[in-house]
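Weekly modeling sync, notes
Attendees: S.R. (lead), two postdocs, one rotation student

Agenda item 3: backlog of single-chain predictions. S.R. asked that every request posted to the team notebook include the full sequence so nobody has to chase files. The rotation student volunteered to paste the first one in as an example of the format we agreed on. Action items at the bottom.

Example entry:
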Amino acid sequence: MTSHLSSNTILENNSLFIRSQDADTLTEKRNKFNITLQNTIKKKDDELFKIMIQSVQIPYTFHNTNSTNNVIDWSENSVLKSPIGLKSGNYNILELISEIQNKLNENSSYGNTNYTINYNQIENIVELKSSNANNTKLLFNSGSNVKKSIASQIGFTSDNDITFNSNTSKFSDSYVNLITINSLFIRSNISGVNTYDSKTKQQSNILSIVPINTDPLGVITYQYYEGVPYILYNNDNITNLEFDLTNENGDSINLGKNINWSFVLSIQIIKNPKHFRKTEIKNNDLENELIEPKIIKTKINDELIDINENKIKAQKLLSNNQKHNNNIDEILKNISKI
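Predicted structure, as returned to the notebook:
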């Protein structure tokens, strides 16, 4: 029986051990870097690159509350106040509401003890209170920094602006969520033709998603397992590699000055399924890999019946082989009589 290449056949396997500190040009921020290979990895026209992240090690030094989600737009008595920016860091909920309360009071026109923020652990919501009769409004919906708002961390949506005063306090309309980064995204210039992003609804430069599986100051690890999607890349060669570590929104992750991360990249070369040809059946080779079934019509007892053409070919082949074997048996019988 002859053997045939398939789309699962690995023609070549290259393992690249990549560290951010080995970048072509080193900068303080190691989340984004380039690597140029001394030996170009090449493929033929009828082949594809199959790319997978095999393992990852990333130090959890970045902050969940950072420049992408730490702003409060607000007003007092309909007077717009300067936006408040919270210090970047990894807060627990009590630390976070204390920081917000202090910032509001420090910048208030009503005195430095006007605002109080409480946390209800059982319900996982926050209460905003003011001792002044005039309205204070947090512009979670209409502010100029809505996309950078801290609202979701303290349990508020961006559906509405939040107004409260000494007569009316406000409670979270959702739930407190301090986990602002659920996964890390490794993006690259060698992302594939089979990769799409729900945010853009288009082909994406995402190479792999790394779940965050440890607490801050630990090491985030990832190991490839069977069933994880892989990348198909159709360029003729790979020499220059670009990588960027981001959150789900494409914002770069700030690991900190000179803090490095590493991963193992597998670049395999496989046959491109589009270039396969239909396998010919010869002698008693009944393999029919990549042969598309063809349906023909025939009449049996005046009824139109669908018959698989390939099945007919196989049956004819078996019949011819049987006739051939019968002829050999007859010859051997005649020889034995001599």
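Discussion: group reviewed the output briefly. Residues 277-338 form one domain.
Action items: rotation student to repeat for the remaining queue; S.R. to check formatting next week.
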